[in-house]
UniProtKB/TrEMBL annotation:
The chain crosses the membrane at residues 38-59. GO terms for biological process: N-acetylglucosamine metabolic process. This is Beta-1,4-mannosyl-glycoprotein 4-beta-N-acetylglucosaminyltransferase. PANTHER family: BETA-1,4-MANNOSYL-GLYCOPROTEIN 4-BETA-N-ACETYLGLUCOSAMINYLTRANSFERASE-LIKE ISOFORM X1 (PTHR12224:SF14), BETA-1,4-MANNOSYL-GLYCOPROTEIN BETA-1,4-N-ACETYLGLUCOSAMINYL-TRANSFERASE (PTHR12224). The keyword Transmembrane applies.
Length: 386
């Protein structure tokens, strides 16, 4: 260390001596001196470091801003988390009592309402899970994605797969507005208002239970059974769910909270997918994101997604890349974890660890494990991967 410092100091000294002299004979040396001194560093900076920085920000700008998210965004107000009790052979009376609620003489009627995009398989799992306890299933689909792209009516085209639900189904279709360049959340809000209308058509009444969630947020059957049988449950209750990505092999965390259950109040209850109350029932189901059978469905969803600004490079849509991402548990959009503290961001960087547990999953998947094996651990290869 000392040597290096000494010799560079010495060079500077020589340079200073030479450059300090104003005679023309030394002009060549002077150029050399300029290059060797500050200006050489400036040239290197302009030609190498600066373009490199610009390139890095271009490639990873979103990552950089997400990394610093804890500085500009604080976490939402914490929920009041309600402990959740369940055991297979515990009576409903005891379960209600454990939660501090009374049991009713008869259960409430239950409505399950969703806006449907293209999640045919996860919809099958959802409806089979909830079937025993839901009186009316309400489904609305549009020929427009939230991002304003024309979309096929995936439910209408696959209706023969859902014969079992037919007597309990209220189906609605709404034409898209196809406004170019509009914020996707506007089309989403428009479709949710239409879903409110459809619920009225379906005959929902005060104090009926209404499940508001995306198709891939699946409440567990026993949770809905509990809420329909117990009195005094909060008027609006969010459901905490376990987050999974691509299949039940990749458990990410238990921070899903957007799904909610409402005791319907006409004139007041509005279909929404944001925070509506402070109550959160612990461990109430599964949120399986991008749990698709085919790569083509991943590509569709990536384009149709409200956050489609995340598709920054066309190679993100390469089917071989997507298959690789699904098997490794990395991120489809090459994003950093969306968290509120540096500790959580750093803790979640890199691929999601593989899980080998397939207990406490929706029963329909295990009952039909051959058909749904792509959702179970160890089966990441999709049907249409080249
Ligand atoms: C969408 O549906 C509406 C209502 O049925 C129809 O008028 C419109 O032509 C459809 N648009 C596309 C692109 O399919
Ligand atoms: C949710 O995850 C946290 C952190 O991993 C854990 O401490 C907590 O017990 C989990 N809650 C449930 C209900 O699984
Ligand atoms: C799973 O299979 C069992 C036994 O056939 C049946 O009783 C149960 O209802 C099935 N559950 C679902 C959700 O398919």
């Amino acid at each position: 260390m000392y040597d290096g410092y000494y010799s560079s100091k010495k060079t500077d000294d020589i340079c200073d001596n030479v450059c300090g002299q104003g005679r023309p004979a030394f002009s060549m040396s002077r150029v050399k001196c300029l290059l060797r001194g500050f200006d050489l560093k400036a040239i290197v900076f302009l030609l190498v470091v600066l373009p490199f920085c610009i390139f890095t920000v271009y490639m990873h700008g979103q990552k950089i801003s997400y990394f610093f998210r804890p500085l500009w965004e604080s976490p939402p107000k914490p929920f009041h988390e309600i402990p959740h009790y369940y055991g297979r052979s515990v009576s409903m009376e005891s379960l209600c009592k454990l939660h501090g609620w009374k049991i009713r003489e008869s259960p409430r009627r239950v409505y399950d309402a969703i806006l449907f995009s293209n999640e045919i398989d996860i919809l099958t799992v959802r409806w089979n899970e909830l079937y025993p306890y839901v009186n009316q299933f309400v489904l609305l689909e549009s020929n427009s994605t939230f991002t304003g792209l024309p979309k096929r009516l995936h439910f209408a085209n696959n209706r023969d797969k859902f014969k079992f639900i037919q007597p309990r189904l209220i189906y609605g279709m709404i034409g898209g507005r196809f406004k170019k360049g509009e914020n996707p959340f506007v089309e989403e809000a428009y479709q949710r208002v239409a879903l409110d209308q459809l619920l009225k058509i379906a005959g929902i009444e005060d104090d009926d239970l209404l499940i508001m969630s995306d198709a891939d947020e699946i409440p567990s059957a026993h949770t809905i059974n509990l809420l329909r049988w117990c009195d005094d449950i909060p008027p609006i209750l969010h459901l905490q769910m376990r987050n999974y990505m691509y299949s039940f092999e990749f458990y990410t965390d238990n921070n899903s909270w957007r799904a909610s259950v409402h005791r319907y109040e006409s004139g007041k209850t509005q279909y929404a997918h944001y925070r509506q109350s402070d109550y959160l029932l612990s461990d109430a189901g599964w949120h399986c994101s991008f749990c698709f059978r085919r790569i083509s469905e991943f590509i569709f969803k990536m384009k149709a997604y409200s956050h489609n600004d995340r598709v920054r490079f066309s190679h993100y849509m390469d089917p071989r890349r997507i298959q690789d991402v699904i098997c490794k548990g990395t991120d489809l959009f090459d994003m950093l974890p969306e968290e509120y503290t540096f500790k959580d961001i750093i803790g979640k960087m890199g691929p999601i660890p593989h899980s080998h547990s397939a207990i406490h999953l929706p029963a329909y998947i295990l009952n039909n494990s051959e058909k749904y094996k792509f959702l179970l651990p160890g089966n990441c290869i999709r049907e249409d991967s080249g």
